[in-house]
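In this supplementary section we document a worked example of the pipeline. Step one takes a protein sequence of length 185 as its only input; no multiple sequence alignment statistics are reported here. Step two produces a three-dimensional model, which step three serialises into structure tokens for compact storage. The input and output of this example are shown verbatim.
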Amino acid sequence: MALKATIFKANLQLSDMDRGVYGEHALTIARHPSENDERMMLRVLAFALNVPADDHKGKLDFAKSLWDTDEPDLWQLDLTGQLLHWIDVGQPDDRRLMKAHGRADRVSVYSANSSTPIWWSGIESKLTRAPRLAIWQIEAEQSQALAALAERSMQLQVSVQDGTVYLSTEKGSVEITPKALKLPS
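The serialised model returned by step three reads:
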């Protein structure tokens, strides 16, 4: 018998002063049996850092990347179904990123492994033709502290100011400073 996804609920209160985005979001997150808390919470962090101010151009949703390799971890589709933003968590290969770059207006990757610099140095030169690609590194200690906050039902307060993310729950808080390895040109 196949294992089923575990459902997590999060009420995310966002104050992103860097982008001028504020709001409350009720998230339902399906955690694949092969996914750990760290990766799931990185998806939540990526949502908070990329959610648009309004849904006029479509909303940001969790996709089925672990079930369907043709989908990202998160995506924003406009009202016509056009892919606006492709977001992956982890260390995708250069072929996947170039394919995503051809399909979406923007592509973002959030990597939180201690081997991120090695992964990035191996594919950086292959992505020079991807001007709409952003690569972000989250320090492993910060992502592990983020994972420790995971619960089946969460109240998350997220503040973003001067490039630093402050995330807190009833269990505690963590400060995360994403490091840009590549920004869109």
